[in-house]
Design brief:
With about 400 residues, the chain is α/β, with parallel strands linked by helices. Helices cover about 35% and strands about 25% of the residues. A seven-stranded mixed beta sheet has the order 5-4-13-14-15-12-16, sandwiched between helices. A six-stranded mixed beta sheet has the order 7-2-1-11-18-17. A three-stranded antiparallel beta sheet has the order 8-9-10, with no helix packed on it. Strand 1, helix 1 and strand 2 form a beta-alpha-beta unit.
Length: about 400
């Protein structure tokens, strides 16, 4: 009996997780990625307990596959170094069963790609259109050949051409008023045990230890869209050199990087939720479905959840279930399971970003006072819905 065929558009974390999950459900999968080769640079990604539970549900051990780094504490600091809020990762592990972990993004995508059959992942294959989405879709590619599918997974990123094509009336992206820099640095002589984010006046700086011993650094600043300096490394030095240790020492390492290894992107989220996360036999996942601000560290985590839930609600690709529930009905169940949760996270991430981006001194002082005065237990309860919110429809939590 022939297998159902899924074409996944995009080989980011959401697309690759969907491909692995569908492959393990018995589907034939083809992943089309326009980039000519796998990424070797980029950034880190934090995997919160909800994402780790989702990966575990499809048999992917992220810590074993890509390595893991568990910081001693997580929290928010002021530019002078004082902690506004600080949580032990041991407390997080006790509450949620597993602590958050952080891995280099290329390592995680490589681990997911390795779980796919040989030939399933096609780099240098740009998808130009999907036709007859309500029937058995045809996926057009720039170099050919075209592909016929039972399902198309649109994992084509924040600027998703497929989202624009099938939801032409949607307002699209919303600029969040901040630009962001990201870099990976190797600092063998510096041990950083904390995953921290420091909030200033309209500026933030984050430090995350990664599984391979490097540090993932990110920074944000309030700026008009499109703002760029001739040298991002010098711009980071100008903005953050006076902040608490070890930030100046980390900037020393940033200055040794190739300029191309310091990434800068303006921050956007989706201006409004999509009316649904599917159309015919196309399902949207990750940033293509619900682009969100990075302030909660949930963008990649929600993409992983999307992918696992999508595969769960679909009929199996082969075996006795092959002639079971139609794909269209399963995709309606996917929208029902994911749209409300992902939009709530999107809205919450935007609100947290507004707090971090405050610039007026009185407002910043009030923000810092409120955050510092909040009981530690309240901070944990505040992320319960994020870290415990992953559910597979029809199964107990």
């Amino acid at each position: 009996m022939p297998k159902r065929h899924a074409v996944v558009v995009g080989a980011g974390i959401g697309g690759l997780t969907a491909a692995v999950a569908l492959h393990r459900r018995g589907w034939q999968v083809t992943v089309c990625e326009r980039a000519p080769e796998p990424p070797t640079t980029g950034a880190g990604i934090g995997l919160a307990p909800n994402a780790l539970r989702a990966l575990d549900a499809i048999g992917v051990d992220a810590a074993h596959a890509a390595g893991s780094a568990v910081p001693v504490t997580m929290g928010v600091r002021r530019p002078g170094g004082a902690w506004l809020v600080r949580t032990s990762t041991a407390d997080l592990a006790a509450r949620y069963g597993v602590p958050p972990t952080a891995v280099p993004r290329p390592a995680l995508t490589s681990a997911l790609a390795a779980a796919l059959p040989l030939g399933a992942l096609r780099y240098g294959t740009a998808v130009t259109a999907v036709e007859d989405a309500t029937g058995r879709p045809t996926v057009r590619t720039a170099a050919g050949p075209d592909l016929t599918a039972d399902l198309v997974v649109a994992a084509d990123g924040i600027h998703s051409p497929l989202r624009r094509a099938f939801f032409p009336g949607h307002p699209g992206l919303h600029y969040l008023g901040e630009t962001a820099w990201r870099a990976l640095v190797d600092v063998p002589d510096l041990r950083v045990a904390d995953m921290s984010e420091t909030w200033g006046r309209g500026e933030r700086f984050g430090v995350t230890p990664l599984s391979d011993g490097r540090l993932y650094l990110y920074a944000t600043a309030v700026a008009p869209a499109g703002t760029r300096s001739p040298d991002a490394r010098a711009e980071l030095r100008r903005r953050f050199d006076s902040w608490h240790d070890p930030i100046p020492r980390l900037l020393d390492r940033v200055e040794r990087l190739d300029p191309a290894d310091v990434l800068q992107n303006d921050l956007y989220d989706l201006a409004a939720p999509l009316p649904r996360l599917h159309h015919g036999r196309i399902a949207w996942v990750g940033d293509a479905a619900h682009a969100m601000a990075p302030n909660l560290g949930q963008g990649g985590c929600q993409a992983v959840e999307d992918a696992v839930v999508l595969a769960h609600v679909l009929p199996a690709g082969d075996g006795p279930q092959h002639s079971g529930s139609p794909v269209g009905a399963a995709l309606a169940a996917y929208t029902a399971a994911r749209r409300g949760r992902t939009d709530a996270v999107r809205v919450r991430a935007r609100r947290v970003g507004r707090l971090g981006a405050l610039r007026a001194a009185p407002a910043v002082a009030v923000r810092d006072l409120v955050v510092r005065a909040a009981p530690a237990g309240l901070a944990l309860r505040g992320v319960d819905d994020l870290f415990r919110g992953f559910r597979l429809p029809g199964l107990p939590g």
